[in-house]
Design goal:
The chain has about 625 residues and is an alpha+beta fold. Helix content is about 35%, strand content about 15%.
């Protein structure tokens, strides 16, 4: 190789090395200046301070316009770590009324990327939240002493009534999973955690704004950048109007004091929930402010579980409140007609009087069977349907037809209420029993207890109340919902869509007449409110393997053009007529008359003072 060629080759190698180095530098500069948020934040932080402007969370009203939930100002302490210089931390702690240990803990949590994934030393980071007005005033006066410290204003929920804790829900600091799922949230933000606050979070939260401030070379704020033209104003959250009547709700909570269970009242014509009591409950105000964690732990440790909304998440055997569904199915399927009569001799004869029954005339037809809540009649009906080989090819075929009717009436699946944590209850299918019995050769007598709402049948109080609304409407229902209006937006169409049961109206008329007779001559005469209003009802006493039976009532009023349907469940309340019926009577009087007549004041006092709890629990807890 000639000397000339060697030099030429060396020149090319050197040129290639220079080009490679240049490309590496260009890529690195591009990464640092364009792609890397850290250096971009640092560059911006020298000139700009971006402050988030938090919107006011939407207010919540009841159906009459009473303000239930509103906001009051609160303040957060923010730090920009890169701007911080040495200052008197002891004075800082005294101003915030915290000790040095707390200061170091808060500082470490702020810098911990596992707890604060969005941490950056160049941008404002939450140090401490929910500063009260006194501490805010003290800090504001001394702010010049603490470089890198800023105050950010936001709002905190306040309540006008000590009711509806489980419906309204609460807000709390966002967790890392929510931050990862939704970029709207950063550490220190608050988000709905339960109730309406959770299910309507996007309505209520609004949209954040931003304020851009210009700083000099020393980091001192000089005013708004570009005269505020680049700022973005926050957009307040959407106000909500609930279907709940706060006076009716508060009265229901009073009646259920020292009891466990639920009251649900629905307007049949719309599906709007007028009242939803879950007992025990709590004052929503206790889950705000600095005592949130302490009070939440106390509620969580209460064995009566006041954090569970039993109206939607409690599941119970519906007992005899389920019998109207049975009669409707047997009529629709042609298993019985209005003249079909079955005998009862204190119980179901083919199984030796099991399940048992109380004394009444026999034999009897469907309308009188509903009025007297005859167990035997509905056992005969189920046996007649599952054993019918003219209409059905097998027991499984007949049973699945029965189940389909139950689902169409709102059982076995969540109804879709606009509250979180709704349970589905349980309606078995034929495969369930084939698996249980390890054979397909099971018959009605193997599962006869489901004919009277026992056995494997489970329902929520909301589903039971919805059955009352469905019968009141003579065959259809609207998905029950708590929110009546969203300011500036329509309700979800699912709440205005009519759901048909597929059962003929004439069969519902028979059922309505039977439930009307139950109030005048049958098992729930205690809710006869004539001449005020004609009530139709059905009692229930559900067996409870863990203690006394549960007391239930389901009904509606008036008989024609119904305005309200109701379900009452009192755990361990024994017979339906003993506790559920008188509670329903008082709620109906409150709804239709607005007050309790003098003749029933004794009953009101008795119910309010009645203690029905599975066991005595004496710890002083913040639950109602």
């Amino acid at each position: 190789m000639s000397k000339y060629n060697a030099l030429a080759k060396r020149k090319h190698v050197i040129a290639a090395v220079v080009v490679i180095i240049a490309v590496v530098y260009l890529v690195q500069l591009f990464r640092l200046q364009i792609l890397s948020p850290e250096y971009r934040d640092y560059a911006d932080s020298n000139a700009f301070l971006r402050r988030s402007l938090y919107p006011a969370r939407g207010a919540i009203y009841d159906r009459k316009g009473n303000l239930l939930v509103y906001n009051r100002p609160t303040y957060d302490v923010m730090m920009v770590v890169r701007e911080m210089k040495k200052f008197d931390t002891l004075d800082f702690c005294r101003t915030l009324n915290i000790d040095m240990e707390r200061f170091h803990t808060l500082n470490a949590d702020m810098r911990d990327r596992r707890k604060n994934p969005g941490y950056s030393s160049y941008t404002p980071q939450l140090f401490m939240s929910q500063l009260d007005v006194k501490a805010y005033g003290l800090l504001q006066e001394k702010l010049y002493k603490f470089p890198g410290i800023y105050i950010q204003s936001r709002t905190e929920r306040q309540y006008n009534y000590p009711n509806m804790g489980l419906i309204l829900g609460y807000v709390a600091e966002v967790d890392k999973n929510k931050m990862a799922a939704d970029p709207y949230y950063v550490r220190g933000d608050y988000v709905g955690k339960s109730g309406i606050e959770l299910s309507h979070e996007e309505d209520l939260r609004g949209e954040k704004g931003v304020e851009i401030l210009l700083r000099d070379a020393h980091g001192r704020v000089q005013g708004r950048y570009d005269d505020g033209k680049q700022d973005k104003a926050p957009v307040s959250g959407r106000d909500l109007t609930l279907a709940i009547d706060i006076d009716l709700q508060a009265y229901g909570e009073l009646l259920m004091h020292n009891k466990v269970g639920s009251i649900v009242m629905i307007e049949p014509a719309t599906g709007e929930i007028l009242c939803m009591v879950s007992a025990p409950t709590y004052d929503p105000a206790i889950l705000t402010g600095k005592d949130f964690s302490t009070n939440y732990r106390l509620l969580e440790s209460n064995p009566y579980k006041p954090l569970i909304n039993r109206s939607v998440a409690g599941v119970y055997p519906p007992g005899s409140t389920f019998k109207p569904t049975q009669g409707l199915v047997f009529l629709q399927e042609g298993i019985i007609n209005t003249e079909t009569r079955y005998s009862c001799y204190g119980g179901y004869p083919p199984l030796g009087g099991r399940p048992g029954c109380h004394g009444h005339a026999s034999p009897l037809a469907i309308q009188y069977a509903l009025a007297t809540s005859c167990n035997s009649f509905f056992c005969y009906g189920l046996n007649g349907m599952l054993g019918n080989r003219t209409k059905y090819s097998s027991t499984a075929d007949a049973f699945d037809s029965w189940r389909d009717h139950m689902v169409n009436m709102g059982f076995g699946y969540p109804l879709g209420v606009d509250l979180p944590s709704e349970k589905r209850g349980f309606i078995p299918n034929s495969k369930f029993y084939s698996n249980v019995f390890k054979t397909d050769r099971w018959v009605a007598h193997n599962i006869i207890s489901i004919a009277i709402g026992q056995g494997e049948i489970l329902a929520t109080p909301l589903q039971i109340a919805n059955l009352g609304a469905t019968i009141a409407n003579r065959g259809f229902f609207y998905t029950p919902h708590v929110v009546r209006e969203r300011r500036g937006a329509a309700l979800d169409p699912s709440f205005t869509t009519r759901h048909e049961t597929g059962i003929n109206r004439e069969h519902f008329e028979v059922t309505v007449n039977g439930m009307a007779d139950a109030v005048t001559i049958g098992t729930c005469r205690g809710i006869n409110l004539a001449p005020l209003v004609e009530v139709c009802g059905k009692t229930g006493t559900a067996e409870n393997p863990h203690g006394d039976d549960h007391s239930l009532f389901m009904g509606f009023a008036p008989k024609d053009n119904p305005q309200v349907a109701i379900a009452v469940v009192v755990e361990n309340g024994r017979f339906g007529a003993t506790n559920a019926v008188p509670i329903a009577r008082l709620m109906m009087q409150k709804f239709f008359a607005g007050e309790i007549p003098e003749s029933d004041k004794w009953l009101e006092t008795s119910i309010i003072n009645r203690v029905i709890l599975p066991y005595v629990y004496t710890r002083n807890l913040p639950a109602k």
